[in-house]
Design goal:
The chain is built from 18 helices and 13 strands. A hairpin with a 4-residue loop joins strand 3 (about 160-165) and strand 4 (about 170-175). Helix 11 runs antiparallel to helix 17 and helix 12 runs antiparallel to helix 13. The chain has helices at about 30-60, 65-70, 75-85, 90-100, 105-115, 125-135, 180-195, 210-220, 225-240, 270-275, 280-300, 335-350, 350-360, 370-385, 385-390, 400-410, 425-440, 450, and strands spanning about 145, 155, 160-165, 170-175, 245, 260, 265-270, 300-305, 310-315, 320, 330, 395, 445. The chain has a domain at about 265-455.
Length: about 450
């Protein structure tokens, strides 16, 4: 996650430079007890904020729905601040909440949570210096001609700094927050504890496999050696592309806790929603949809984190840089074949093959209650709407995601609901939902039938 904003450098600084006044810093809370306290406070603040909002609205004679009480700007500010301080696994959840489409979250709530994508609290300068010393040695500053102490971006697992080497390379250094890897297990355990709160989730819903998969994925994302290899493998598999590019890894400056790549200028692609021309938004959204289909069906290597900050748009070239391959997953060929069958059935709107494919993939099972099975199949059929549309599908005018959210909420809180998505497809599902939500955010028009035609 990088932006074009630059800051004064501190060349050959032997000790940390003074922090800019606007930079928010905080050490990462460590230990399960401390992190549970922060998470508990976040939930308590949401509840208190909702109660206060409810009293105000009741005094006005209103009868608001629960969502109107929870998803307020005040609650968003409190939640963003708490998760920004925590970082780690729980902050990942906040990032996902911010990736809403039209009608999913109130715009004010989503806009405040969007800061979690690249504007989390950063490490204090002394802690940053210690992290660099641990990775490179106490004379780390001698590696660089210039190093910017102010991060370009800071998110759940690490923060990014701009550096220039003595041979003229301009690098982006992704530096892992201390203790984040060690805190993943406690975060997941705390989320599991929270999930057992009576009334919070449907009775009988077992999240054991899902949370175990989440923990495995997050641990993988903190392995920067593995991410360096995945980034290079992905860049080679993608090949030359007129729109998309993957920064080159610089192994001589990469370690277990630091990933060094080319610095690429640009802004998070969702900012085009505010100032991009329609044709530009359409072209970028089409390129990213084409990428998602190509990753799954051709490369069989998918970057499964659709955080909007992982796509940087450069206005001068019109190209999009792809970042953050800690969540890259190799797809099993039999799963790709099953997903191709599902895609064809959704494109054709054929309920029988959709059911067959859903059974093979594990979205439904023969022993599931009929009402639950029907609900899942209805939602799957709805996701095929853009594939069945003739010509460009107008995501800006579509109500698809709002309808799916309402249907999903109704089914999720039905006491008969007891199935989560297959664990091995959980992050792939997130990738495609995130890509289509980005199309909605950009109000883009994309011919999805044409995008997927070569693969189906």
């Amino acid at each position: 996650m990088q932006t074009t904003t630059d800051v004064p450098d501190a060349p050959h600084a032997a000790s940390p430079a003074p922090e800019p006044a606007a930079l928010r810093t905080a050490a990462v809370p460590q230990g399960r007890g401390r992190r549970l306290l922060h998470l508990g406070r976040a939930m308590g603040e949401l509840a208190a904020g909702a109660a206060a909002e409810g009293m105000v609205r009741l005094a006005r004679g209103e009868r608001p729905a629960l969502a109107q009480l929870v998803f307020t700007p005040g609650n968003a500010r409190r939640l963003t601040e708490r998760l920004s301080t925590m970082r780690g696994a729980v902050m990942k959840l906040g990032q996902l909440l911010s990736m809403d489409g039209q009608g999913v979250l109130p715009p004010e709530f989503a806009a405040l949570l969007a800061a979690l994508r690249d504007q989390a609290h950063a490490m204090p300068a002394t802690q940053l210096d210690a992290a660099l010393s641990q990775a490179y040695g106490p004379d780390w500053h001698g590696r660089f001609r210039r190093f910017s102490f102010q991060p370009i971006a800071s998110a759940s697992i690490g923060q990014v700094h701009r550096a220039e080497t003595h041979d003229g390379r301009v690098l982006a250094l992704k530096i892992q927050h201390p203790g984040v890897r060690q805190g993943i297990a406690s975060d997941v355990a705390n989320l599991a504890l929270l999930a057992r709160t009576p009334g919070l989730l449907p009775a009988g819903l077992d999240l054991t496999d899902t949370l175990a998969r989440l923990q495995t994925q997050l641990l993988h994302e903190t392995d920067y050696r593995a991410e360096a290899q995945a980034t290079t493998a992905y860049r080679l598999a993608l090949g030359d592309d007129p729109v998309l590019r993957v920064p080159t890894v610089h192994a001589d400056h990469s370690t277990d806790q630091i990933l060094a790549t080319d610095f690429v200028p640009g802004v998070p692609v969702d900012r085009l929603a505010d100032n991009g021309a329609q044709a530009q938004r359409d072209a970028v959204a089409t390129a990213l949809c084409r990428l998602a289909a190509h990753e799954l069906f051709a490369m069989q290597l998918v970057q499964t984190d659709p955080n909007f900050g992982n796509y940087l748009f450069h206005a001068d070239t019109g190209r999009v840089a792809l970042l953050d391959f800690g969540a890259a997953e190799a797809m099993q060929p039999h799963r790709v074949a099953q997903l191709r069958d599902l895609g064809r059935a959704l494109r054709d709107g054929d309920a029988g093959p959709v059911r067959t494919a859903a059974l093979a993939l594990g979205f439904i099972a023969e022993q599931d209650p009929p009402a639950q099975t029907d609900g899942v199949l209805q939602m799957l059929m709805a996701t095929g709407e853009p594939l069945r549309h003739a010509g460009a599908y107008d995501f800006g005018a579509s109500t698809l995601f709002g309808r799916m959210l309402a249907q999903g909420q109704a089914q999720f809180f039905d006491q008969g609901f007891s199935r989560t998505p297959p664990a091995d497809l959980l992050f792939l599902q997130r990738k495609f939902i995130g890509t289509f939500l980005l199309c909605t955010r950009l109000r883009a028009r994309v011919d999805l039938a044409a995008v997927f035609a070569p693969h189906l």
